[in-house]
Amino acid sequence: MLQQDLAKREAEGKPIRVGVSGAGWIGSGFVAQVAHMAGMRVSVLADANPRLAREAFLATGLSPQDIIEAEASGPAEDALRAGKRVVTASYALAAQLESVDIVADVTPSPATGAETASACIQHGKDIVLVNIEADVTVGRILNQQARQAGVLYTVSSGDEPGCLMELWDFVTTLGYEPIVIGKGKNNPLNPLANPDMVAESARRANKDPYQVASYVDGTKTMFEMTCAANATGCLPMQRGMYGPEATLETVSRIFALEEDGGMAKFPGAVDFVQGSAMAGGVFVTVRITDERIRADLEYLKVGQGKYYTFFRPYHLWFLEAPISVARAFLYRQTTLVPLDQPVAEVLTLAKRDLKPGDR
Asked: SS3 letters for 269-328?
């Protein structure tokens, strides 16, 4: 249905016009993906360094003459109505433009996400965050403000929380009882990792070493699972969670309730697993007591016994985020929104003893 609706808009010459904040690795990847999709186009691309925005557009095959830099709504509107694309240093500009239908923040910055979302709420523009850091920090407040203003606020699919929310919706709609929800960590956990330690691997991957360090030391995982917790009400079983080694064959036993020989302290927990077998995926382990349903799931090779794990083996981050943008605009459909009252938060701990004045 979505593909058909987008194809129809393409055929009618009415693509969804998207404003995007962020032209770094994540944002430029989002732009590259949208360029291959029918019925959508990135019309405005904002970055503190407009050169990056221009390069992201050029990489999709646009000519330099197709790209106009503008910092005010008048020139930007004129450019868009003339069929051009706009690059800007203003994260608030896209929200002000009639020629933009919806805005996506595609940065890892809580400040940028809050700035972009606040501008959208002020100007009545729907906002999609491909930015779980912003959602974890101020998403509850932004969602409440958006609701009061009649604006749609949602976190996208693609990153683990959004993908996990889709899986959560699937199993809970079927009436299954979630025991543990979580993700497979992409790399071995090293809580002491720092930018210097990962500098070489970051250089080879053309990534920011500070960002790579946040993946290895667990920071990103903590943000992701906090985002999922605050959307579902699931709770971590201890600070930092457990993160056991697991495979798809063992995870249902590992995350069974303690009374059944597992480590889950209560139903509705959030955690993560380590090991290559589930890396990059998301899962929901459920308890099923109905003998008929259990027999059917065993026949369907889902598992055996009382506990079953539903697993999506991948997440495509910013590459699948445009689907959430399209659904938000066409159907007013959210992917993930935080509860009004958070149940978890992220805190910071120093990796070494700090003296006054240390940075």
From this structure: EEEEEECCCCCCCEEEEEECCCHHHHHHHHHCCCCCCCEEEEEECCCCHHHCHHHHHHHH
Q: Which residue has the tokens 């080879």?
A: 204
Q: Domain map of the chain by residue range?
A: 2-158+318-331, 160-315
Residues 179-201 pLDDT 10s: 999 999 998 899 999 999 999 98
- Say how many C-beta atoms besides its own lie within 10 A of residue 206's C-beta: 7
Q: Report CA 181 to chain centroid distance, whole Å.
A: 16
DSSP one-letter string for 218-255: SHHHHHHHHHHHHHH--EESSTT----B--TTTHHHHT
What does residue 170 show for φ and ψ, rounded to 5 degrees? -60, -50
* pLDDT tens for each residue of 137-178: 999 999 999 999 999 999 999 999 999 999 999 999 999 999
CA-angle at 313, arms to 298 and 256, nearest 5°: 50
The answer on pLDDT for 316 being more than 90 is yes
Ramachandran angles phi, psi of 309, nearest 5°: -115, 125
**CA nearest 86: which of 34, 40, 18, 35?**
18
- Cα–Cα distance between 23 and 342 in angstroms, integer? 30
pLDDT band at 312 (very low <50, low <70, confident <90, very high): very high
Q: According to the model, what pLDDT value does residue 19 have?
A: 99
pLDDT recorded at residue 205: 83
For residue 156, the one-letter residue type is S
Per the prediction, the chain carries an average pLDDT of 97
Superfamily of domain 2-158+318-331: NAD(P)-binding Rossmann-like Domain (3.40.50.720)
Per residue in 98-127, pLDDT tens? 999 999 999 989 999 999 999 999 999 999
CA distances from 52 to 40, 128, 275, 322, 358 (A): 21, 21, 36, 20, 33
What is the Cα–Cα distance from 16 to 14, expressed in whole angstroms?
7
- Give me the amino acid identity at 186: N
Strand partners, 274: 245
- Give, for 2, the enclosing helix (H) or strand (E): helix 2-12
